[in-house]
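Pasting two entries for a bug report.
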Amino acid sequence: MTTLQTHHTAPLQVRAAGVRAGYGAETILDGIDLTVPAGVVSAIVGPNGCGKSTLLKTIARVMRPTEGRVLLDETSVHHQPTRQVAKHLGLLPQSNAVPEQLTVRALVERGRYPHRGVFSPWSEADRDAVAEALDVTGTAGLADRHVDELSGGQRQRAWIAMVLAQQTPVLLLDEPTTYLDLAHRLEILRLLRRLNRERGVTVVMVLHDLNEACRYADHVIAMRDGAVHASGRPRDVVTPELVRDVFGVACLTVADPVSGTPIVVPCDD
């Protein structure tokens, strides 16, 4: 993967205030109060069904809360036009439907939608953004292939390229390493960290692997039963007590010999 060109942006703060949300009569998020630190990498962790994806969708304006507000620099995202929000928040959902015969390049070009008028010609900035997104995700060689013909890992990287082409100051990614093998998982996590370090992009991602969350995130948000159970630096949050309370797993935590961040070691029964 290539070196990213540096585009520094002013960090934007995302805040949820008293947010309740769900599907029909079922409440998933039950009064979320959360401030996502601006300009850092945050990882949302927690057991299946605890509300991680619902929280991300609500922040991204895909879902409307039944109570409370989601604020981007103290302005409600649900009171802003879709295109305006899409200039600030880029979302990679957990599952994506792809029209048949859509090429990887055409998919990535869709990331430029917020920056272009309906009849606007393609600019040099648009072409550069697409080319760089393909390059940094290692999908340039797949640009002319159809997305529905790709492997799961290749398809995931193509979707990540689309979100990167959007060039937003805040990236929201729901399980971005799904379907990826170890080498590509690490490449994507390192890429997201570099986007943060070199461009100041605020990254919020849902991860299942606690050890990867600790190593690649500056801030961990642990959820349980539709609420935030704890949040803070990995070494302060990811403890044997938290893993037991949130995941129901007995474990030890030891220091990663490379990064110094916690490694979760489950205990045998």
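Entry 2 (this is the one that rendered wrong in the viewer):
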Amino acid sequence: MGFALLAGAIWGGVIIGPSLLPEFSAVLISCVRFALYGLVSLLIALPFAAGLLRRLTREDLGMLLRLSLAGNVVNYALLGAAVQLAGVTTASLVNGVLPVAITFLGRGDAGSLPLRQLKLPLAMIVLGLATITLEHPGGGTAHTLGEQLLGLACGACAVASWAWYATHNARYLKRSHFNSSEWSTLLGIITGAVAVAFGGLAWGLFPGLLPSEVEPARWAVFFWVCLYLAVCGSWLANALWNACSRRLAASLSAQMIVFETLCACLYGFIYTQRLPSLAEVAAIALLAGGVACAAHRHRVPAVAT
């Protein structure tokens, strides 16, 4: 759970990234972020790159390509679009449905509990998300209804893509001959290549992808934000999450995603310099209680000898 908490603490800040760069498209932010992630991963892997490549099979490469596209490049482009169209609060709330989605997809995995035994923790998580939604019905933004709906759709697609990524990545890691750090490094290298190819294709189809009238100072901010997203939000957080996925059942690791929502709320309170309302305290308690309840139900009872 410690690995999941650290990953959630990092990812809670990652979701704010697109809101800091409103003049840049979500696709551009995603492609640059993951291109830098690939470069960092390649530099880290140089001392032992030959050994990694020798152990890489065609099955590994195929899975890495699918995970890179669905769980990284496309997912963050969709999430960024949701943040810019509907606001951080709304995007965070939609993203908070991930525990339910991952639990559903991983319900048949070894070590996972059936859904009927997870009704209470899942109900607590859903109720916590609903409580925050009632507290912020409009997401705290001035976006139009059309933008809100489009942002919700992008957020829902981002949830679907990352739920697929988390489930299949966890299954593959449990039988992989790579450790968590090696797999994260390989995923970063492949993601970098996918991001460059995806960005080139998007630029060819939509020449206006690069903003034409942006001050040099904003480009500097864009670079540093993307670098943080690449190093901390991708390489470090992915390594932590892989370590969590290898050790926990899918139905339990799914609940750990709630740490991302909780940390995003905490950062929001610090950024706005205010204390949470009673409804927000109740929602946070429900989310944290749902995770604690799920963890308790996954505990293996001691066997008397």
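Dev reply: Rendering is fixed now. As a check, the viewer should reflect this: Residues 216-247 form the longest helix (32 residues).
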